[in-house]
Amino acid sequence: MSDFSRNAHMVSRRDFLKISGAGVGATFIPTPLMSAGAFMMAGRIKTALLVPDFDLAPESASAFALKFQEMADSRFGVDLFSTGRGLTTQVMASARQALADGAKIIAAYINDNDADDLLALTESAGAGLLVINHGENMPRTSFASPRFARASRNQWAEHYRQGRAVASGDRVAMLTSFYESGFDTAYAFRMRVEDAGGTVLEHFVVRDMAGLNTALTATNRLGVDTVYAAFSGVDSLSVLGAWPVNLRLMSIGVTDMSDQFIQLGELAAAALNRWDGAKFAPDLAELPQNALDAAARRASVTKTGWLHPYMTL
Asked: Which of the four, 23, 138, 169, 269, has the lowest number of CB atoms within 10 Å?
């Protein structure tokens, strides 16, 4: 059964940008999962991993948390905290609880652009902050603190790069779930397509199976050269099951998220391991400069600061 309609009524498109999820993940017991004594430290660095409750494919985010714990150095003792729906207020509440329980590092699954207050909190406590996300939105904040680090798959930049695969003059249709339409990824792809001389004829936002069938029928009639689709979790299975064989699908946004969550767990643990006791060692990996420059130019032109056309700062 598809989760299109079940997810759509929960929050608005604007609210989705305040939820640092990737559409799938783990369901955890409300904060805290363990008592302060359950950190089982014995001299190790108390680290709180703050993760939202996701209602799709819970095994994926469970794999993320397990991979993070597995790959973290033995000098860290990792405890899991739930942040509910992942709203900023919920993340802050969990972080305060973790710090009160003696955590020295907060590793939070949260959007970069929502981390200002969280950094202020950890800075005031002299603790480290590791921001973790899939990177559906282009970062618009820069934190100079040596006690701050980020681990992200930078999906918006990957979708921007994938737009290069569309040849000049190609006609493109875009299909995204209501959830995915709230992030920069699809708009980064569209920006690169248009910069390359391609044309996006339609962008369909799908809320349910009826909407999916209508969008696929309309896309077939357009006679496009390729179709971009972005869906998460069980919705991606519904899309692939209904997809007409004659439509060329760029399925960069229709994937099994399990491997992506595991990869994110590895990236986050690698970032945590750069903690030297007082600060994070610099991260040598940088975002592709061409994608950053192009996104900055487009954001300046639109006067919003966002790739997403409905959002303002």
From this structure: 169
